[in-house]
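Reproducibility note. Readers wishing to regenerate the assembly model reported in the main text can use the exact inputs given here. Chain order matters: entities are listed in the order in which they were concatenated for prediction.
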Amino acid sequence: MSDTKEPAFSQSNAFPSADVSRRDFLNQVTIGALGIAGLGSVAVTYQFFSPNVLFEPATQFRAGQPDLYPIHSVTYLQDQQVYIVRMPEGFYAVSAVCTHLGCITQWKEEAQMIACPCHGSKFNPDGIKIEGPAPRPLPHFGISLTADGELLVDKLQSVKNTQALKT
Amino acid sequence: MKQIMATSVTTLLATLRETKVWKSIFRRGPANSNRTRSIAVFGNLFLHWMPVKVREKALHVRASYYLGSISLFLFLVLSVTGILLMFYYHPAAPNAYRDMKDLQFVVSNGVFLRNLHRLAAHLMVFMVFAHMFHVFYRGGYKPPHEFNWVIGVLLLLVTLFLSYTGYLLPWDQLAFWAVTVGTNIISAMPIIGDKIKFLLLGGHIVGENALLRFYVLHVVILPLVAFVLIGIHFWRVQKDGGLTVKPRDSDGK
Amino acid sequence: MENKKIETGFSSDAKKEPRRVVFVTKKTSAKVVGDRGPQLMTYPHLLLREAIVFEIMVIAMVVIALFWDAPLEQLANPLLTPNPAKAPWYFLGLQELLHFFPPFVAGILIPTLVVLALVVIPYFNVNVEGEPLWTRRPGRNLRTVLITTIALLAFLAFFDAWTILVPTAIVASILIFSYTARQQANGWQSALAAKPLSWWIMTWFIAVSICLTVVGTFFRGPGWSWIWPWRTHVG
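Running the prediction on these inputs yields the following structure tokens for the assembly.
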């Protein structure tokens, strides 16, 4: 379209408002390259610090035959920090870790409630909070039956606290 | 007899000072003139962060109660006792507690070293708070000292974090649950809280990874950060005009 | 926008090393120190004093360390939470705060705000002139103080945060007392009445922190329930 000697595409054509000198251009490219390198280093370092393999206790475990647990009972499994709660409507697997700051709660048989020693939070056997600074009810884990009829609890699976395992 | 001993010692020292070896190490000569006293400070690697001259009012106890200096000295005591304790400590889960028992009952002077380390740690947290409040009440944060105050706040956070990471290392009930509660508080941060907790603990639970990470933080990373910040902090005191001296002090009231 | 009262820059004396200085550009009520006062050589005067402080400190600590044993409880047991599970003393104030407010507020929000407030103190020219609270517009200041205090106390009472409410009330009473005592000629009452607002805010902060920490250390037992420390040591 134009009959000037200017090439069709040049720096000043493509970015008409930016008249960049060679020095500034090289500076910007260098800073950009260093910035990308810096971001890359941060990302790689973050990956380094995030462990890919964890040697922690298994999150799925068997809890024995359902008949071991009487109805209206709350059984604390110490190794897994889980309460196996059996109610007329079925089984719940309730986490024993207080939702406030992570202390391990205790089942109080006489008072029929779960109590946390750290700041005095108290819960019903189904995990609903009675009083205390805990912000949420105790979470429920997925509980199912294995092929040979044993209870299987999966701590990575959260279920609603109204969902009970019927046996 | 004593006089003869005294003079022979002084002449011995004097001849020693004249030797080539001595002069190659200590190059300024005896500090008996203001010139050589100046060189003693700004020509010395370990002392050049101090100014060559100080205002007389700044030397009084009530000017600073030497709180900043005490904080630095406590840091030095902690570094030395900490390094000594490192010779008998394995940062791994069952060994750590056994090593604490070792230090308590088996290692010579182990109890003393550990007591000193713990005492210095508690005192240092207290002293840096006291130092900060005193600097505030004295107005030592006012221009041109603003940035030094910010460095001071950073140092306070580093001190607290140093104390906290060290708290886990005995791996007893006290340590374990203090860290459990603390990391759960961190996970209460929105969006990034869980990620930070995961990185700090090296996993989901307070376990072997957590102990090792807290150990590296406590023994290497945070002391280096503290060392650098302390250097900047002292350098800024000198460059921004020395310790704050209130007008009241100059008037002698 | 008016010129800033305080400008910072570099001293122009080329022979001395560059040093940040502050130019007071407008007439202010702050006293400016013209003379730096008599100076002494660092070696030996400062170094000797530092050495003495160091020695006293080391001797005191060694004596204490010979008698006070660092605690060591049982081996860490992830399955058994001790009751109560307390943080180190410098975090007990925070743990007490956690009793009243949710973890995000007490654990993240308030500490972050405190640190931010500390960091910005010098940049907002806090208390550059050191003007007492009751010199200009004492009536208006008193009203603001009363409204703020009552609002704060109501808020704290709503959350049952007595540990914060009590020191707040005490500091506020002393502050209001200093208003009534502002006409005094000399003595501690006039010194108190001459304190600027920033002094009061920092004193309030320190009072609340100390109260929270002391309560968290001595007055909290199993389940973070209230205990009287003398009663637990009886028997």
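We highlight two features of this model. The radius of gyration of chain B is 24 Å. Residues 65-251 of chain B form a domain with the Cytochrome Bc1 Complex; Chain C fold (CATH 1.20.810.10).
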